[in-house]
TrEMBL record:
It comes from Pseudoduganella lurida. Belongs to the LysR transcriptional regulatory family. Keywords: DNA-binding, Transcription, Transcription regulation. GO terms for molecular function: DNA binding; DNA-binding transcription factor activity. Pfam families: HTH_1 (PF00126), LysR_substrate (PF03466). The keyword Transmembrane helix does not apply. This is LysR family transcriptional regulator. InterPro entries: LysR-type_TF, LysR_HTH_N, LysR_subst-bd, WH-like_DNA-bd_sf, WH_DNA-bd_sf.
Length: 318
């Protein structure tokens, strides 16, 4: 015999001889009334359950009979008895209404301890070091059954990725954030001078002239630039520095500084984490930036996503 336990609601039951139902014109309230009538098999009790009058229930039953082309409920010795058509509708209708109630019910509280979500966040190597890494241990402890995928940052694609659901969050500078996404500023970042310990020309804070005489590595995300925000500041002072190396990633810049006499102006949060380097105060003040967390409107009120956002925000709040 076919298994009909989980079959979807089919109000015409695919029987050509039966009256076909136009779902677009069907009033959901009528289905709720029919469900209660089938359970109570009594107009008076159905009216009491639905907080309606008996004439209203009778009028709705008349409309149901017209809709389905069947009497549905007939007078009986102890109330009303369902027709064969009504009996066939009883269980599919009950399951359909329960599913609808579940679908429209408010989302329950999120429990990270039992969650099994897979989250995807877009981040540059700086975002990985300054935002994702500080949050990782707490995320694993609180939600051990979840998974986290960190995908490569493509700023021009962020809006489309978020709209399609390819990413749940992105970490990007406020100034460069694309339009159309929700945004929360996480922290303000500043640049610091970084060199290897024992650098022969950096035993103390350098003067401006000494600073400009050093050999620098710069991070250029297009992989070819030899100027950055530091050069703009120096130009305003009538000064220039020597840039010997251009790389696309902050982490590689830190590694190059650790293994050579090159120096760099790097974001402080990344510089404090880097191995084999020391942080010094530069003789010029280089404007920093604000780091933001971005997400799509469709996830804004989701309890699980809200928890994820709060977890990242708390991890970098210091």
């Amino acid at each position: 015999m076919p298994d009909t336990k989980n079959a979807p609601l089919q109000l015409d039951l695919h029987r050509p001889a039966l009256h076909r139902v136009d779902l677009q014109r069907l009033d959901l309230n009528l289905l709720l009334t029919l469900d209660v009538l089938l359970a109570e098999q009594n107009v008076t009790r159905a009216a009491a359950r639905l907080h309606l009058t008996q004439p209203t229930i009778s009028a709705q039953l008349a409309r149901l009979r017209d809709t389905f082309g069947d009497p549905l409920l007939l007078p009986g010795p102890r109330g009303m008895r369902p027709t064969a058509r009504a009996e066939a509708l009883r269980e599919p209708l009950r399951r359909a209404l329960e599913g609808l109630q579940l679908a429209v019910a408010p989302a329950g509280p999120f429990d990270p301890a039992t969650a099994n979500h897979t989250w995807r966040v877009a981040a540059s190597d700086y975002g990985e070091a300054a935002v994702v890494l500080p949050a990782l241990a707490g995320l694993r402890d609180a939600a051990p059954q979840t998974r986290l995928a960190v995908v490569e940052m493509h700023p021009a694609r962020l809006t489309g990725q978020a709209e399609r659901g390819d990413i749940d969050l992105a970490f990007h500078t406020v100034a460069g954030s694309p339009h159309g996404l929700r945004r929360r500023t996480l922290f303000a970042e500043r640049y610091v001078l970084v060199a290897r310990p024992g650098h022969p020309r950096l035993k103390r804070r350098p003067t401006l002239a000494q600073f400009c005489a050093l050999e620098f590595v710069v991070v250029s995300h297009d992989g070819a630039g030899f100027e950055g925000v530091t050069d703009a500041v120096l130009a305003m002072l009538g000064q220039r520095r020597r840039v010997a190396l251009s790389v696309p990633h902050f982490l590689f810049a830190a590694a190059a500084v650790a293994s050579t006499d090159l120096v760099a102006m790097l974001p402080e949060r990344l510089a404090r984490q880097a191995q084999g380097v020391k942080v010094l105060a530069a003789p010029v003040e280089v404007p920093g930036y604000e780091m933001a967390m971005l997400w799509h409107e469709r996830l804004h009120r989701d309890p699980a996503h809200r928890w994820l956002r709060e977890t990242f925000a708390a991890a970098v709040a210091g």
